[in-house]
Design a protein that fits this description.
ten-stranded mixed β-sheet; 12 strands; Arc Repressor Mutant, subunit A; 2 domains; alpha+beta
Length: 207
């Protein structure tokens, strides 16, 4: 039974591997994992990888490298999180330029930020989406993707400015709708001259 229980170091190694996959799209090398864990020797990272393989959490791929095949137990899952970058902010009123610098890295449960998708966090401003429970100052968790379906709440980039709106798509026009108790907010009508940055998965009250 203890063979499947992760030590603190093994949990941290698994978390770092998962973070690496989420942010970079591939697993770290032994030396990259060594640096991420603060080890001085690649042998230490190699040994911890071997222990995770032996315990059934990782496996070697035929083409080389490793992959995660199992998460920790329910008891361990409370600390099973991924670091998601908080980047700039987006307006829920008028489009506001997104600052590309990362303000912080926030641990988010993988129960809502599911690997292998990539995510980022934005701080919303304004009240144009308060009917969707996105309020001024809230943090929104966004799954990175360039497509969306009707009714999704998206982060859209218009002339390098980002806004959070509900998207509705027809053959020749796209409308970004506010969902607000404030009647001053109006829909934004577009053709195809914009980009979807991602789909909002969850709104988190002010952090």
């Amino acid at each position: 039974m203890t063979e499947n229980i992760l030590t603190h170091k093994e949990m941290e190694a698994l978390r770092q591997i998962r973070n690496w996959i989420m942010h970079k799209g591939y697993t770290p090398s032994v030396r990259e994992l060594m640096a991420a864990l603060g080890y001085r020797s690649p042998r230490s990272a190699s040994l911890i990888i071997m222990r995770l393989i032996r315990k059934g959490f990782l496996q070697k791929k035929s083409a080389g490298g490793i992959q995660i095949i199992k998460g920790p137990s329910d008891d361990e899952s409370r600390s099973y999180t991924v670091d998601v970058p908080l980047v700039g902010m987006a307006s829920c009123g008028r489009p506001l330029l997104v600052e590309e610098n990362i303000e912080a890295s926030i641990a988010v449960s993988t129960k809502i930020a599911h690997p292998p998708y990539k995510y980022f966090l934005l701080r919303a401003t304004g009240d144009s989406m308060n009917k969707k429970n996105i309020k001024d100052g809230d943090i929104v968790l966004v799954r990175q993707q360039q497509t969306a379906k009707n009714g999704d709440v998206v982060v859209a980039l218009i002339d390098n400015e980002a806004t959070i709106k509900e998207i509705h798509i027809s053959d020749d026009v796209i409308v970004l709708h506010p969902r607000s108790t404030n009647k001053e907010h109006k829909p934004i009508v577009l053709t195809r001259d914009f980009r979807i940055q991602g789909v909002v998965i969850k709104s988190i009250s002010k952090i």
